[in-house]
């Protein structure tokens, strides 16, 4: 039996490898996953939540360049390297966009950046307490590849950090839905009778409530926040998994290998977990890929409504909410870029779901 299972797995893997869009989507998802985990290592603005604001350079177009004066702080940053890598740097420095500067008698004279053709204020900074190395690194040219948002934050950094929420909500939500869905579906399908009727009643009641409305209710009950959204989305996605598992187990429990397991005196728990579930996981894997995409869309919708990830956390849905009115103000990229990111990631999960369905279909 194990040899047959191994052969079928190898055959499915070979079929998956021949699906161009499936393989492409797989590597795209891997790339997004790496960016999500190490977002602060890739982001030009590695401050926590990429939340460094410069209101004087708000809503600038992609490729915008400006001279940035960075004034060191006397406050020591005792963060560890791991903390900076995964949670961002606690910003203690002061950054000021400038248009001109010169040094005279150990005093730095600079002109602050002002938008809309205005002239910025002229200020000065005493350099007597700075070393030559510090003075040399005070002013650097900063390029904003994706431009800046309405608060003057680096849009590229916000996109990279925001990928973390959209990506990981899929994993957490699908994990929760699999645990609840497989358990409920297994109980209903294997034991039947009153247990099946009761579980199906719960499934039908949950199914009848609009998903977004149910998520909003759970989110309001648990409170607004990062993990609350993850749990809320996961608690609404188990119904589809339970229905699929129930149907598969009803079909599988009458097969000869299950009858033989009962005749050998195996307990119900072992029959379900060791014999039935491994043989019905193909459709569950496919529906999990679809649930990944659905979880990303639901989280984006919640963030757009203001009950998802809360500021200053970066979220693609919240970025669309903040900038959707800029579409008619001549700067549509502020909303289109996060929208395209959501679309690309959702499409990748849908394509990999289709590829897995074709690869695991024994009839093809």
Automatic annotation (TrEMBL):
Keywords, alphabetical: Cell membrane, Membrane, Transmembrane, Transmembrane helix, Transport
SUPFAM superfamilies for the chain: MetI-like
CDD domains: TM_PBP2 (cd06261)
InterPro entries: BP-dependent_transpt_permease, MetI-like, MetI-like_sf, OppC_N
Top-rank taxon: Bacteria
Entries under Gene3D superfamilies matching the protein: MetI-like
Family, similarity comment: Belongs to the binding-protein-dependent transport system permease family.
Protein's name in the database: ABC transmembrane type-1 domain-containing protein
Organism: Bizionia arctica
């Amino acid at each position: 039996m194990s040899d047959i299972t191994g052969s079928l797995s190898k055959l499915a893997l070979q079929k998956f490898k021949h699906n161009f869009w499936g393989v492409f989507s797989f590597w795209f998802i891997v790339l997004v996953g790496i960016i999500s985990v190490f977002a602060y290592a890739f982001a030009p603005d590695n401050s926590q939540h990429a939340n460094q604001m410069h209101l004087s350079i708000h809503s600038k177009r992609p490729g915008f360049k400006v001279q940035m004066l960075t004034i060191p702080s006397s406050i020591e940053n005792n963060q560890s390297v791991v903390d900076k890598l995964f949670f961002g740097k606690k910003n203690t420095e002061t950054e000021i966009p400038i248009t001109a500067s010169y040094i005279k008698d150990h005093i730095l004279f600079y002109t602050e950046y002002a938008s809309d053709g205005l002239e910025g204020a002229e200020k000065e900074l005493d350099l007597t307490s700075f070393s030559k190395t510090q003075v040399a690194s005070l002013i650097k040219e900063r390029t904003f590849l994706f431009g800046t948002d309405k608060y003057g934050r680096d849009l590229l950094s916000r996109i990279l950090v925001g990928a973390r929420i959209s990506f990981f909500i899929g994993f957490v939500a699908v994990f929760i839905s699999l645990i609840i869905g497989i358990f409920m579906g297994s109980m209903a399908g294997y034991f039947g009778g009153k247990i099946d009727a009761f579980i199906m009643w719960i499934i039908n009641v949950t199914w009848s409530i609009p998903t977004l409305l149910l998520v909003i209710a759970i989110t309001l009950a648990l409170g607004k926040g990062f993990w609350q959204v993850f749990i809320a989305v996961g608690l609404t996605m188990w119904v589809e998994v339970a229905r699929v598992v129930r149907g598969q187990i009803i079909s599988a429990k009458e097969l000869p290998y299950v009858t033989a397991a009962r005749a050998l005196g195996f307990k119900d728990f072992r029959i379900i977990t060791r014999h039935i579930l491994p043989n019905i996981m193909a459709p569950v894997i496919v529906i999990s890929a679809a649930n990944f995409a659905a979880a990303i869309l639901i989280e984006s919708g919640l963030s757009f409504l203001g009950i998802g990830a809360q500021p200053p956390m970066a979220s693609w849905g919240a970025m669309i909410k903040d900038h959707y009115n800029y579409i008619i103000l001549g700067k549509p990229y502020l909303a289109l870029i996060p929208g395209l990111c959501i679309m690309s990631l959702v499409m990748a999960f849908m394509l990999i779901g289709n590829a897995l369905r074709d690869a695991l279909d024994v009839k093809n």
